[in-house]
Amino acid sequence: MANITFVEASGQSTTVNLADGWNLMQGAIANGIDGILGECGGSCACATCHCYVDESWLDNLPPASENELGMLENVAAERRPNSRLACQIKATAALEGLIIQLPETQE
Ligand code: FES
Question: What's 95's domain CATH number?
Answer without folding.
Answer: 3.10.20.30
